[in-house]
Amino acid sequence: PKKLTIGLIPGDGIGKEVIPAGQQVLQALPSKYGLTFDFMNLKAGFEEFKNTGVALPDETVQTLKTKCDGALFGAVSSPTHKVKGYSSPIVALRKKMGLYANVRPVKWVQGQGIPVDMVIVRENTEDLYIKEERIFNRNGEKVAEAIKRISEKASWKIGKIALEIALRRQKVREQTSDSIHKSASLTVVHKSNVLSVSDGLFRETISNLYKQDLAKYGSVEYKEQIVDSMVYKMFREPQIFDVVVAPNLYGDILSDGAAALVGSLGLVASANVGDNFVIGEPTHGSAPDIQGKGIANPIATIRSTAMMLEFMGYPEPAAQIMAAVDANLKENKITTPDLGGKSSTTDVVEDVLRRL
Ligand code: NAD
Ligand code: MN
């Protein structure tokens, strides 16, 4: 069997309670997949910062780069007031590991709530998040500005991975029947009616990429949507969206909004993807209000673990993990309080393991 080394970065708060769920699921994968796992526990977070003065130790980054095949990140606490020397380790980690895409699926449980089965692919490296801000004086008045930077290269890369995800989802759909989509589509989100230069470059780059390789991408329907009407449509009829690709800021906002469509933050998974590495990450934070109670929903982390495997090139075990989670949710019996249940984190993990 093939041995994969996975870095585990639990971080703070419930990060410590949910990351073991990902580890247990990997350990419980049937032997037919021919995979075994080694785990390395790595440090990062606000607690680590308080203890050592460093939120993301070099050792964590070096170990990921030299020893790990993939990783799982829990959550970190970030104080709302500014703390000298502290900045979020996940943001730094995405940068240092070249993880240019944040991939976030939002999926309903069949028969419950609003039908939705979409993936938001958010560009992770530029746009307003380059944080080139300044404040200056104009005729005795304070003015602040922030630079929004969009490059052709980053737009091309994010467009390409989004189209590949659309093709892959299409392929998976052909084998299963649990999707609300009949065919694949890509929706490019932009505001080029106003920002014709910056968002214009984003939109045009992806549109060209699509048109230049119709042989490969032609089975994916290409659509564009201006970001404000995107929000409207996403809440009115989320079922029409399959893969959605967006620049950093719109992607950030859309993906949190989309999470509201499926009930609990404790369900929503993500993957930070680069050309050579992937970090699975539940989208929720460290949840100090429920920390230590043993009731954190582990499903976001379990789904993130499956996504990590998928992007590492192991779609079959990933699909099996996703199916085990879906079965747990569909039965709607062993669930944590955020979903209205009475079960603990470990009860849910055990139920998912039983279904694997
Ligand atoms: P949060 O996601 O931690 O919690 C929001 C609400 O959702 C809380 O009521 C919480 O109990 C609930 N919740 C979240 N995950 C859950 C789960 N798995 N199971 C059950 N309920 C869950 O967001 P917040 O309260 O705004 O932030 C708390 C801390 O987390 C802050 O310090 C913030 O900076 C940090 N944060 C970190 C990340 C990250 O690491 N990527 C993301 C968001 C927030
Ligand atoms: Mn966000």
TrEMBL record:
**Residues that span the membrane, as ranges:** none
**Domain Isopropylmalate dehydrogenase-like positions:** 5-352
| Any one GO CC term of the record | mitochondrion
Pfam family name, one: Iso_dh
Needed cofactors, names only, are: Mg(2+)
This enzyme catalyses: (2R,3S)-homoisocitrate + NAD(+) = 2-oxoadipate + CO2 + NADH
Q: Tell me a GO biological process for this protein.
A: isocitrate metabolic process
Q: What class of enzyme is it?
A: oxidoreductase
Q: Which UniProt keywords apply?
A: Amino-acid biosynthesis, Lysine biosynthesis, Magnesium, Metal-binding, NAD, Oxidoreductase, Phosphoprotein
| Gene Ontology molecular functions | homoisocitrate dehydrogenase activity; isocitrate dehydrogenase (NAD+) activity; magnesium ion binding; NAD binding
Q: Which InterPro entries match?
A: IsoCit/isopropylmalate_DH_CS (IPR019818), IsoPropMal-DH-like_dom (IPR024084)
Q: Which domain of life is it from?
A: Eukaryota
E.C. number: 1.1.1.87
Query: What pathway annotation does it carry?
Result: Amino-acid biosynthesis; L-lysine biosynthesis via AAA pathway; L-alpha-aminoadipate from 2-oxoglutarate: step 4/5
The family assignment reads: Belongs to the isocitrate and isopropylmalate dehydrogenases family.
Task: Write down what this protein is called.
Answer: homoisocitrate dehydrogenase
